Amino acid sequence: MEVFEPARLGPLTLRNRVIKAATSEGMTPDALVTDELIEYHRRPAAGGVGMTTVAYCAVAPEGRTERRQIWMRPDAVPGLRRLTDAVHAEGAAASAQLGHAGPVADASSNRVPAVSAGRFFNPLGMAFTKVAKAEDIERITRAHAEAARLAVESGFDAVEIHLGHNYLASSFLSPRLNRRKDGYGGPIENRAKVALGIARAVRDEVGDRIAITAKLNMRDGVRGGLEIDDSLHVARGLQEEGTVDALELTAGSSLLNPMYLFRGEMPIPEFAASYKLPMRVGLRMFGKRFLRVYPYQDAYLLEHARRFRAELDLPLILLGGITDRATMDTAMAEGFEFVAMARALLREPDLVNRIAADPSTPSLCIHCNRCVPTVYRGTHCPLVPEPD
């Protein structure tokens, strides 16, 4: 496979195999699209990606990580249509990441209790989660289908179902967070019901009108969390049921170990400064325990992802440390159909075009992760000079 050749993704043809991964944008103060959000996605579209992913489009008000995020409702459609039109005008496709934050949701910000597979204390909202009942699961599953329908109305070419990072569906997959005694707890066959049911509902709603992908944790990166064997069970279920056209492989827990995904440095002072008291003090004192540091290396999720490639026929999207032509070519040679980029495009939205023109082009991203704390005030690379 060649990374810069057109590629099929379900019913969709992308101009190349590079996808801009979903990254919280922090540009929707009224939970609606803004000009800033449109420009945020227009730039990498103009810069050469095959598809850009809008994050994070919650399927219900309590499913937002915080109150300012978009949640899918009719009022959001006109703005989302403006965004997809802008992306399409640059020759790229647009995907909407759909999900429910579950225990990661800030209940104090959303002003409604967060729900989860089990009872868990979220320090951001300073509150325990509400244990999801069967009727909550049914409601949230339907909400994913309705959100996918609204994504079609908004002009999206694809949706990405969020099954990772210990958001709601992922909290059910985690043995650490899911200690239920009912039909949704215990063996992986039970713990996978929510994730597989959501994917089935989305497919039933949109059929083949748009592409459907899912973001799935390979590992949570925490003791007692989801591990590869159980994740493979979920992936095989998605494949056998034909509910997704591709799987994006991720890792880490936004709740318990977020840096397992990011890798590289962790700017504790900048991160702490983005929070209010008392969370700010807590992060300054104990941040190194929560925000662990993992050394950066290119294609850092490849080793785990190889097991999925060996055992699945489903198209796979390799994420993590994809910054140059060499890592893209490695992914293609290993049998991955697509690659996903995130932080490198914050500093250089036109990086894909420049790599296509000159394969020796290096990325300027230094993996300092100073972009991570900016998600609450407009995600950007702090190393890029602001315009005059």
Summed up:
The protein is of the alpha/beta class and about 400 residues long. It has a single domain (about 5-355), classed as Alpha-Beta Barrel (TIM Barrel), CATH 3.20.20.70.
Number of helices: 15
CATH second-level architecture: Alpha-Beta Barrel
Strand order within the widest beta sheet? 3-4-5-10-11-12-13-14
Total domain units = 1
Beta-strand percentage? 15-25%
Name the CATH class: Alpha Beta
Give the proportion of residues in helices: 25-40%
Q: Rough shape?
A: globular
Number of strand segments: 14
Stated plainly, the CATH topology is called TIM Barrel
Integer-rounded radius of gyration: 19 Å
- What series of H and E elements makes up the topology? EEEHEHEHEEEEHEHHHEHEHHHHEHEHH
Provide the low-confidence segments as ranges: none
Give me the CATH superfamily.
Aldolase class I
How far is the N terminus from the C terminus?
43 Å
- What is the averaged pLDDT score? 93
Domain NADH:flavin oxidoreductase/NADH oxidase N-terminal: 3-231
Keywords: Flavoprotein, Oxidoreductase
Organism: Actinomadura mexicana
InterPro entries: Aldolase_TIM, NADH_flavin_oxidoreductase, OxRdtase_FMN_N
Protein model, in words:
- It contains 15 helices and 14 strands.
- By secondary structure, it is α/β, with parallel strands linked by helices.
- It has a single domain (7-357), classed as Alpha-Beta Barrel (TIM Barrel).
- The strands form four sheets. Strands 3-4-5-10-11-12-13-14 form an eight-stranded parallel β-barrel, surrounded by seven helices. Strands 1-2 form a two-stranded antiparallel ribbon.
- The mean pLDDT is 93.
- This is 2,4-dienoyl-CoA reductase.
- One of its GO terms (molecular function) is FMN binding.
